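Morning. Coffee machine broken again, so started the prediction first thing and wrote up yesterday's gels while waiting. Chain of 458 residues, entered below exactly as on the submission form.
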Amino acid sequence: MGISVIWSVIAILVRWIFSKRRGAISYDSSDQTALYIRMLDVRVRSQVGFEPERRGSHPYLGVDFRTLHSRAESAGSIPARRIRRLFSFQRHLLSSRFLRGAPHLNPLHILDEDYCGQAKCMLEKVGSWNFDIFLFDRLTNGNSLVTLTLYLLSHYGLIELFQLDMVKVHRFLVLVQEDYHNHNPYHNSVHAADVTQAMHCYLKEPKLAKSLTSCDILLGLLAAVTHDLDHPGVNQPFLIKTNHYLAALYRNTSVLENHHWRSAVGLLRETELFSHLPAEDSLNMERQLGSLILATDISRQNEYLSKFRTHLDQEDLCLGNASHRHFVLQMALKCADICNPCRPWELSKQWSEKVTEEFFHQGDIEKKHKLEVSPLCDSETNSIADVQIGFMTYVVEPLFAEWARFSDTRLSQTMLGHLCLNKASWNAMQPEASGSSEELESEQEASSRALPQGSPQS
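Came back before lunch.
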């Protein structure tokens, strides 16, 4: 009897929250500050069974993006997601009671077993560059993003410094993790956790560690956590050529990045994480968060890289200057976002396979609906090795070469060494690869000299 009453109360509360989140929502297309409300409205309406309006969109886009990569799921997947949401909300209620000192009948740990055993041991080495986020995600039962971020916020003393409500922090992170589409092979919560861990490694670098303020660190971590929030598993050109409502909303400019930012702002306001701060400070943090997330737009890569190179050539970067610190944070986030080729081979290879799987699945969708297949998305004309070698050569190498100029440390040399080794490994997998095995071994041996031995990051 007691259990049924509890579930009834939870169901009522969930319905109340959904209705509250949908209530009092107004949208004026000329009001740019209200765009996040529209995004939140679309997400919530989709979750409770209302199909968002997509006038003029391609017929394919009537399909919920969350099922984009679920090839073998049954029709019961959506109810299952709602059940998981109920459990998450129940956990939030129990955590609230625990943190407020309310008595409870059964022993409760806010993160269950996340901090116990092997997961706790891994967190003690969270600053290591060969940190295995896949293993950590398994050890935390799929809660790597929540667990890692809570640990880092505590590690930097940000919860106490900014007087954050632990219940709100936990609820915000749970909602963020849930709003990543874990059916996406690559753009999911594990990728967000990986980027957050990389960002932590960069924040520890000497130049940044002695210059960044606590606010810079908080923004850097939040940007890493939310930088791909609610990613649909397809790229911007796909959204534009299918006349998707997001493309129209953001006028075909940084469509995904704007959506990630506005979705993050929606959750910040929904959970009232910064409600205790002065309104001006809270709005300023939202704007700076947007500036960081928008910098991850790969179509603006050359713009940021050119600006970074100019600063380094002129040696005029002053980290005592707030705008310069913010620019360095942008570059750090860009590096963290595409650092997979700079990880040890065992990790890098897994990420390469996942991102290529997502590309090829988009290509399959485009073929099915008679759309022009996007570059790198045709599995018949591209291989994983092709995609990775091109990406490393034209995107990753130029960025990390400049980052090493800015921060010439053991970590930077480690990353460049792994990048060289990984590129050689992919070249060796090319069917038309020329040269003897002796030449390949010689190249790998030369590359390995760039990897400092015995470093904590290597």
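Residues 345-368 form the longest helix (24 residues). Going to sketch it on the whiteboard this afternoon.
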